[in-house]
Design a protein that fits this description.
It contains twelve helices and ten strands. The protein is an alpha/beta fold and about 280 residues long. The chain has an eight-stranded mixed beta barrel with strand order 1-2-4-5-6-7-8-9, surrounded by five helices. A hairpin with a 3-residue loop joins β2 and β3. The chain starts with 8 loop residues before the first helix and ends with a helix. Bound molecules: ligand C2E and magnesium ion (3 copies). Ligand C2E binds next to β2, α2, α3 and β6.
Length: about 280
Amino acid sequence: FAKQNGRSQYSFFFDDLKTATKRLVVLESELRKAIETKSFTMLYQPKVNIKTDRIIGLEALIRWESDKLGIVSPSEFIPFAEENGLIIPLSEAIIEKVCGEFIRLELGKRADMPISINVSSIHFQQHSFVSSLKAIFEKMNCQPSFFELELTEGTIMANAAETSMKLKELKQLGFRISVDDFGTGYSSLSYLSRFPLDYLKIDKSFITTILSAKENEYIVDAVVQLAHSLHLEVIAEGVEAVEQVELLQTLGCDIVQGYVFGKPMPAEDISHYIEIWNIKRQER
Ligand code: C2E
Ligand code: MG
Ligand code: MG
Ligand code: MG
């Protein structure tokens, strides 16, 4: 059979598997090298309060171009790093990089424009998470009150007792806390109300279809009500169109983040972006 058809389905399957396995081997060694040499960059995306028309925060997002693999998306290499233990050194390198840029460029040196850092669940689950974070911030001479931590709903809801303690410690240090990708996990409402949180970020998937799928508009509406009743502010992520901003405004959403206001950009460009924003704001 294999000979008649040239090559069997099975050998194609194994070829694919070989290629995939090879990629993972290269990915691991390339990632290891990138962490050691800190050869990745951080981009920053503005968050806009649509009630005050002010930029109220910046989210730090990693970008990595490997010599051998080209640009690899964080949606691929972050979960990969979480599986093979590289996420801890990678996370620490990311935090150091962001702190360094914060000092060097006086990024958001104002407490009213915190820089948010995405925290991996594996990193957060470490017993030493809070103390290691504290150590990096001290070493880098950075004040946590200028920063925010983005934890996904799944991360926050796993192991509630430990989460509660860690969040309290983080709040005491001065960090603000966002629940990222809200709506994709399973939140316990009682935990949501007891944890010391600041923001709920509604997952992109609800926002992308908010104009076309009525049920997603209702979900966003409900999340806004829920968040406000818990005294949290709501951030909509992945907003690309002005019509989406307008609808979010009528639903009472507080903060918008997305291409509609600005793509993630290099640290060097942020000051200029903020300057232009403020000039235009005066004119509006
Ligand atoms: P996330 O934290 O939920 O980040 C939001 C993602 O949406 C980012 O993708 C961002 O570039 C993208 N985005 C922003 N505005 C728009 C928009 O208007 N339209 C669309 N279609 N997308 C938009 P990115 O940078 O590829 O990151 C993907 C995920 O990878 C992040 O999701 C986060 O979970 C993770 N990640 C990124 N950077 C880091 C990091 O420094 N540390 C950790 N632990 N995870 C990170
Ligand atoms: Mg995020
Ligand atoms: Mg998100
Ligand atoms: Mg995400």
